């Protein structure tokens, strides 16, 4: 199985932002691998990718608070590692959320829980606002001056002001109707996650 860096990798740790352009050189992975999580694919054809072939990501170097972006079906998928403190805050803020139990939101059954993920610490989300599809901004800091004293970290959509918490759950009183979508995903090892495929697919194959 050949490996290559797919599309673009965007890491956002709050303090540093890096964007790596598309490359097919495996050597380039080695050069940046010490500091930057990287993404690998099963090297699907362009046609297969457009049709939704799964994408594989290595999260072994993803640190708490960091965000990794991979592309699946032409859409950005975020992978974010949350701290234990951030997970505790998810419970504390349920009162300000429109759909805290994700009853009316889109996610696989295994992600219909308060943290909306398979592993509590690793969040996997489609990075598009559920209002009109803008790209929300990752704002992990607490009490951000422009977002209010009760801001506990999450995502802010600059188009019409929708707010989401660090599980992608939408606030009350904003235009976005539902939580951010969670794509199908599964772990194939401790450090490797596949987007666009899950255990149900495996059983049905
Ligand atoms: S597209 Fe995000 S609030 Fe409208």
List the helices and strands and how they pair.
Blueprint: E1 9-12, E2 17-20, H1 26-32, E3 39-40, H2 46-51, E4 55-58, E5 67-72, E6 75-81, H3 84-92, E7 122-126, E8 137-139, E9 154-156, E10 163-165, E11 185-187, E12 192-195, H4 199-204
Antiparallel strand pairs: 1-2, 3-4, 4-12, 5-6, 6-7, 8-9, 9-10, 11-12
FE2/S2 (inorganic) cluster (FES) is lined by residues 129, 131-134, 157, 159-162, 175-176.
Q: Which CATH architecture?
A: 3-layer Sandwich
Low-confidence stretches: 1-42
- Give me the number of helical elements: 4
Q: What is the terminal separation in angstroms?
A: 20 Å
CATH class: Mainly Beta
Radius of gyration: 17 Å
Shape: globular
Overall pLDDT score: 80
Tell me the major beta sheet.
4 strands, antiparallel
CATH fold label: Rieske Iron-sulfur Protein
What pattern of helices and strands is seen along the backbone?
EEHEHEEEHEEEEEEH
| CATH-assigned homologous superfamily | Rieske [2Fe-2S] iron-sulphur domain
């Amino acid at each position: 199985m050949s490996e290559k860096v797919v599309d673009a990798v965007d890491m956002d740790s709050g303090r540093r932002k890096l964007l790596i352009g598309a490359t097919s050189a495996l050597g380039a992975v080695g050069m940046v691998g010490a500091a930057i999580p990287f993404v690998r694919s099963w090297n699907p054809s362009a046609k297969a990718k457009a049709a939704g072939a799964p994408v594989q990501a290595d999260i072994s170097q993803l640190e708490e608070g960091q965000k990794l972006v991979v592309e699946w079906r032409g859409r950005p998928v975020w992978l974010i590692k949350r701290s234990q403190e951030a997970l505790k805050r998810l419970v504390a803020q349920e009162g300000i959320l429109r759909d805290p139990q994700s009853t009316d939101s889109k996610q696989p059954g295994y992600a219909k829980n308060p943290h909306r993920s398979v592993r509590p610490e690793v969040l996997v989300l489609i990075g598009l606002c559920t209002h009109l599809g803008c790209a929300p901004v990752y704002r992990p800091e607490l009490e951000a001056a422009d977002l209010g004293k009760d801001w506990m970290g999450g995502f802010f959509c600059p188009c019409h002001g929708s707010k989401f918490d660090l599980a992608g759950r939408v606030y009350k009183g904003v235009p976005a109707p539902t939580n951010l979508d969670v794509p199908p995903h599964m772990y194939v090892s401790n450090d490797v996650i596949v987007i666009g495929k899950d255990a149900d697919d495996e059983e049905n194959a």
